[in-house]
Amino acid sequence: MATALAVQSLCIPGFDEYSPDNWCWDSDHKSCDVKLSSNHLAAYFHIDPIFESHGTAGVRGTKGFNEGEYYWEVIFTEPVCGTSVMVGVGTKRTLLHMDNYQFIDMLGKDEQSWGLSYKGTIWHNGRRERYCEPFYDTNTKIGMLLNLYTGTLTFFKNGVNLGVAFRDLHKVGEELYPMSSSTAAETEVELGIRSSRKLKLQDKCLSTILRNVSRQDDGAIDVLPLPKKMKTELKEMRS
């Protein structure tokens, strides 16, 4: 319930109700060190009882995201540890496997992906930035809200909005896939809520306008040759 309320609090005027999505982890696009549950909702990393972990393993979802707003959750069903455990998004060219004992923050390693580490850092194009407090607890639930109208990716922790982590993702020009990666033996992640919604035509226009005005300056909206009601809606969308 807390997560549902958190998502509703970010409603942009004009969005239809969220619709459930049924995508899952993709058995054809994953590291050989990732095993999936029978329903492909849970992913298990580095579970070989002999070799354990000898690199970094990743998996992506079966659905690529383009136009629209998408919300999904990944639940860490075991305590998180190791060099790197991540969630995020990436293009279909994102690396999903590294061996030879290369333990890296895979999501965000280059320009093809954007990731959040359990250590509280976000990564893109090989650069990291402090974003939130680390999370270690069993059943920690990380929500992701990808808005491809405004180009933002926002993370939630157990229903609490952590703020916008990445911007300009609408400029990538290709589909983005939900992803997870880990260096640690016996990492387990499970998909929770998966949903999406799309803007009505008028609000697509408002979203386009909003992307082309200053994020911080209300005056940039006030001087636009638009009805007062539309200017108010633009300010609400930006807040």
Describe what you observe in this structure:
By secondary structure, the protein is mainly beta. 14% of the residues lie in helices and 37% in strands. The strands form 2 sheets. Strands 1, 3, 4, 6, 12, 13, 14 and 16 form an 8-stranded antiparallel sheet that branches. Strands 2, 5, 7, 8, 9, 10, 11 and 15 form an 8-stranded antiparallel sheet that branches. It is elongated. The two termini are 23 Å apart. Mean pLDDT is 88; it is low at 1-15.
Structural class: mainly beta
N-C termini distance: 23 Å
Please outline the major beta sheet.
8 strands, antiparallel
Helix content: 10-25%
Shape: elongated
Radius of gyration: 19 Å
Mean pLDDT across all amino acids: 88
Number of strands: 16
Count of DSSP-assigned helices: 4
Order of helices and strands: HEEEEEEEEEEEEEEEEHHH
Q: Tell me what portion of residues adopts beta-strand conformation.
A: 35-45%
Unreliable stretches (pLDDT < 50, length at least 5) are 1-15
Topology record:
Elements lengths: L1 H7 L10 E2 L4 E6 L3 E3 L5 E4 L10 E6 L7 E8 L8 E6 L6 E2 L14 E5 L3 E4 L2 E4 L9 E8 L4 E6 L2 E7 L10 E6 L4 E11 L3 H11 L6 H5 L5 H11 L1
Antiparallel strand pairs: 1-16, 2-5, 3-4, 4-16, 5-8, 5-15, 6-12, 6-16, 7-9, 7-15, 9-10, 10-11, 12-13, 13-14
Helix pairs in contact: 2-4
Provide a brief overview of the structure.
By secondary structure, the chain is mostly beta strands. The protein has helices at residues 2-8, 201-211, 218-222, 228-238; strands at 19-20, 25-30, 34-36, 42-45, 56-61, 69-76, 85-90, 97-98, 113-117, 121-124, 127-130, 140-147, 152-157, 160-166, 177-182, 187-197. The strands form 2 sheets. Strands 1, 3, 4, 6, 12, 13, 14 and 16 form an 8-stranded antiparallel beta sheet that branches. Strands 2, 5, 7, 8, 9, 10, 11 and 15 form an 8-stranded antiparallel beta sheet that branches.
